[in-house]
Amino acid sequence: MIIDVQNDFCPGGALPVPDGDKVVPVINDLMDEFDLVIATRDCHPEQTVHFEKWPVHCVRNTKGAEFHPGLDTSKIDKVISKGTGNKDDGYSAFETEELDLAAYLKEKGINELYFTGLATEYCVKASALDAAKNGFKTYVVSDAVKGIDVNPGDIKRAVEEMKKAGIKFM
Description:
single chain, alpha/beta, Rossmann fold, 6-stranded parallel β-sheet
């Protein structure tokens, strides 16, 4: 699972994660190790309650919503858009109107999920926690995630919460 490696979350974007672009080569190298690669993307409408909490970012059909240009999208099997409604935040890959992700993965015989992407304490955390709640063995690849740490210690607290939920870090 590649979570939200989009222009607006990388340096120069509307809501940049410090060194967010540094995950790109790591993710590109990892993709060959998996039979199924799914990427998520924030795909917000121009008006959404989400922008009451955050700067405007990843508005559908904008450059900021596109995947980072260095991400090898040819290796991605499925793209899931999230945060598409006017009243949802779209943090978790499992909270999308587009697809029942848990059912889709189970139908494909997937029982383990490995998470990469941005940002550790928001969309990566929400997606990983939902994966664990849905019965998947869940892993986060430490070298392939970056966080924003809006409040100092947010990343550390998120990692602790994920570990407490049984999510393994590698």
